[in-house]
Amino acid sequence: MHLHDFWFLLIAVLWIGYFFLEGFDFGIGILTRTLARGTVERRVLINTIGPVWDGNEVWLLTAGGATFAAFPDWYATLFSGFYIPLLVILVCLIVRGVAFEYRAKRTGERWQRNWELAIFWTSLLPAFLWGVAFANIVHGVAIDREKNYVGGLGDLLNPYALLGGLVTLVLFTFHGAVFAALKTVGDIRERARAQALGLGLATAVLALVFLVWTQAHRGDAWSLTALVIAVAALLGALAANQLGREGWAFALSGLTIVAAVGMLFLSLYPDVMPSTLDPAYSLTAANSASSPYTLKVMTVVAAVFTPIVLLYQGWTYWVFRRRIGVQHIPAAQPAAEH
Question: With a threshold of 0.90, does the pTM exceed it?
Fold first, then answer.
């Protein structure tokens, strides 16, 4: 295996880790409007991800930084061609982080309601747009001989990409509902399981169409194996959810994301951004990579720091593993008079 192949694999792992972790983050944000009944239950849902949401975004920063360093041509073409949707995602992530921090700074109902709406929309939009972006990467975009994207914004909103956006939106919401059932107690836990059933069935229909479409367009035996795993894991997650085995349901919904995103990267390789104008213009892991020396230095750094990050994040999840419910939310204090 060449180092550029290793870094393609590592970047795939980073994106898979990001979608696995941030997926239920986005799902919880969406569920604050569709599952929670009232301010207290919204606080319960937000508190389930309160200690971990910012750590989950480290995976995105690492994936973006690794792409920039290991595959500068891929990074340049991707971020220039997908500038508007990626800018919208970036703004959403900034506003979302502010909303988590500022929501509880004041006790006014309007203040908290507005920040809760911000959490909802800034979870929903990235969950959809990430699917659109990755579907376009796999499907191929208009790249010329100079490695520049020459299409427009409308070209990115094709039926395949929009379907990909719907799949990630519903899949992440399902993942969030399973996580909510795992992390809560009482009535909200039961409603989370009920909502997970409907979301899981919708995910099964949309994801099967999208993954079969992907397999027919660019698939091989490896991607077909990942497709079968994704479908089996999703069905297993639904069964575990119905049996009240929330731990297994969450593990299997996570495996669904791992297998589905893994299938996209398997379908993509050895390309990193196929060209719809001419296959010879496609960006590949070989022609868009940095120098071997750069990749060698990056490999040493990754070997040292990746285990540290994994251990720290695993410890964080262990410390905050307890379930919570409305009884754990303190009563709101009246606003101070001025």
Answer: yes
